Structures are given as structure tokens and as C-alpha cells.
Amino acid sequence: MTEQNHAYALENPLTSVLNKPARDFQRRDFLKIIEQQKIERIAFHYTALDGRLKELRFPVPDRRRAEVILTEGERADGSSLFKGMVDASLSDLYVVPDFKTAFINPFDECSLDFICRYLTRHGDPAPFSPDNILAKAAGSFKKETGLDLHALGELEFYLIFDKEPDTFRLKKQQGYHESSPFIKGGDVLDEIVHYISKTTGAVKYTHSEVGYVDDLESLHPEIKGKGAEQLEVEFLPRPIETTGDVLVLCRWIIRNVAFRYGCTATFTPKIEKGIAGNGLHFHLELTKQGENVMSGSGAKLSQPARRLIGGLCQYADTLTAFGNTVASSYLRLVPSQEAPTMIFWSDSDRSALIRVPLAWSEVHDLAKIVNPQEKGDGAGSRSKQTVELRSPDGSAMVHLLLAGIAMAARWGFREDRALELAEKLYGAPATDGKTKKKRHFPCLPSSCAESGRLLLEKRDLYEYDGVFPSGVIDYAVQLLKAEEDIGLSEKLARLSGKDFLREMRKVMHRDIHRH
Q1: Which fold has domain 3-126?
Q2: Whole-number Å distance between alpha carbons of 37 and 75
Q3: pTM
């Protein structure tokens, strides 16, 4: 890009052409773009209960047609999008574009695309749609606390491909932060990040992850006999109500890029015994007027941060109902796999449910330490302290999970016992770098069945103030029951050798594209 227009290569083209931030986009801006960029289609996207992005495409033959689409939205069949929740006799919903989400389709430069919101026949936000539930939860948190809750996701996935010649092969569980030629999917990952950046502007960084499988054994024809390497896209903090759309959109981009390379991308929680699973960790940040309020004096967490942790601990077992939704989720939540099994928090410990990562709290301007010749002051940054929730995985119903997290944060500020709970469930690091596991720490659920039972017992945590409709809770419980995993661990434990691996793989691979 030339210096004259001050545009960056990965900037959203709409922001660059219109010379305004996305939050200020208006209908007349899009009519201008349609004429100037020779747009042929408008596409509406929206998230259904299955967590995947849906789509309507509209040809744009003239200005009038474009204006009507952008003014009124369109109808959609709610009984299909929300099957089992919306009665067929009252199924019509409006899908209406959210202008600030506009982007040029990365796979079709003639298509102007939007994320949409669901409205009822009366023009109200549909109370059962995941995005509207998240918006309500985030709004209620801010209203009660005066704080903003931001979230960033760590989206892990496996890229599965036809095996190449046996060169530069990695060993089991040795893919972490590897580079080419040991990692084969670098070009695919670069293209993924290019599109996500130009669409959302929310990518922090990418890297290869621990998991690596040289030869997948499976009954599933899409992945049988292929190689797999684990990759990750980590995002920048965004308002929690925005994070849901970002992640669902990004899963759509990842799958499309993989497909164009003749590969499969899967976010399924587990693909092989003894191989790292696909987590979907969330870093959470509290801000006030744009400033991080997570740090207290020195490197200690502030009281608001501890209230947030207390709320997450209170909700932890039931958050699995939205964050760990398939039977294979609980094959990932096992000891010695850097996945949590108990409800506790700690500093830097990757086996803890909630981890407090390094955040430049004690040191700053580190480049000057490494580069003493540097005389200038760097741009610096505000405090970066977050807390990381490590239980969710790639099967998560993202919007509903984030809504539950917002409700947990609100509980932490509403209930004074949140501070007591946070103190009680702290696991102090041992001097050898390992966290001391205390027997009194409660356990996370070990199956979908248990997670669903707990959600039913504690549904008032989510239905408080009418944020989660009762039908959504019932729906989530039914999904969990449908996994039929009561006693699965015991059943697998009675098997050995090839029988054990065969049955375990049936569970892991039976639905590699659930969400």
C-alpha cells in the first residue's frame, strides 16, 4: 500500500475505502461500495443452534433491490434453524444485517457479506438465539458492574491431509511452535490468517500446536490413513458479545481454506489417544473506560479479577454443558494432557481450570533489555493481565458458552462469597514448578450426562434475570443426553488393546464437524 492512503495490507478493505471505522458504517456506505466495487451479491450469515454459520445469498441487479435488502432484512424459517425449540406454526423470524460486521467475502470478491441478528415478528431480539442471549448477558454484566468484559479465544484445530513423502517427520506430541519444513500446513495457515485478519482484524498470532499424527487410524473415510497436525489461531481481546461472532466466522473461514487445499479442518475435541486435544481456551479481561483493571499492587490480581475468578469457579461445572458438548470432550479432560480435571486456579499452571498467565506486570519495555542500543521509548501498551479458562474445547456452543461466562462474572460481583470461593480454590504453585493438588478441590464433570444433570440442577444460575430462556437450557440438556455416554469411561476401561482403541476412535471420530 502507498503511504498516501495510510492503509495496511491486512486492514478490512471496507474500512480503508470508506475511511471510517466499522462501528460507523451506514446503509449509504454499502450502496456506494456496491456501485464502485461491482458487487453482484449480498450474503447474510447467522449462527443457528448447531453453532455453524448459515447463509442467504441475494443477487443485486439494481440499487433499489440492494436498498430494500439492507433496510428490511429477510425472513428465515426459525423452526429449521432452531429445531426442537421453535414451533413450526410460529416459525418465521427476521434476519437483519448488523452493519458493523460487514466484510467482502474472502472467497468471492463480488459478495458483500454481513453477520445478521434474529428479530421476532414484533421487531424484538429473538430471546432464544445464541447471539442475542450473549448480548443480553454482556449488557446485564456491564449495567450491574460498570465494567466491560472482554474475551479472546485460542482456537485450536487439526489440519488433516494426504500424507507426503517421509521427510522432516515430527515425533509424537512434538509439534509445539515448530516451523517449516517440519510443519507442512504453514501456507494454509498463512492464508487462513490473511482472510481472518481482513475480515475481523482480531488475530493476535498463529502457531503450530503440540498435536501431530503421522497416520490416523479411523473408520471415518474423510480422515482414515491421513496425516494430521495441530494448529492454533489466537485472537486479540474484544468485547465478549463480539467474540462469539468472530469465532464462528473464523471457523467458517478455516474450513473453507482447508477445503480449497484439499484438506480437512476439524475442531473435534480429540482425534487420537495420547495426542493433544483441541481446546478452545478463553482469556478474560475486565476494563473500565478502556483501561485494564485486573492488576492490583505489584503483580497481584485486583479484587475485580478475583471476583471474576470466584464467579467462574461457581459456574465451572455447568459451563461444560456449553463448552464440552460431545462424549469425546471428556476423553480430553484427563490428567497429564494439560487439560483440567478439577476446579481450581493457579499462576501459570496449565493443568489448572483457570490460569493466571504472565502479563508484563513486573517488567516493561523488554526490547531495551535485549537491545541496549535502543534509545527511544516504545509504543508500550496498557496492562495485559487476563485470566484463562481452560476447560472448553472445539465442540463449544460458542455464543452460549460466552453468555454463561458473562453470567458467571456477574455472579462474582453480585455475591460477596465469590472472593471467599476464589481464596478457597487457589492452588499455590510448588517450588518445583508443579501445582500442589489439594484433595478438596471439586472435580469437573466426567461425561455429557453428568454435565447435563448439573445444568438442570443449577439452571437458575443461567435463567437469572431472564437471560437464558428455559427452552435453551432444556435444549442443551437434551443434546447432552443424546450423547448417551453414561458409563462410557467404565466401558472403555474394561477393554484392552485393539478393542479399546477401536471403541475409543468410534467415539472420537463419529462427528468431526459438530460445531
Answers
A1: Ubiquitin-like (UB roll) (3.10.20)
A2: 27
A3: 0.94
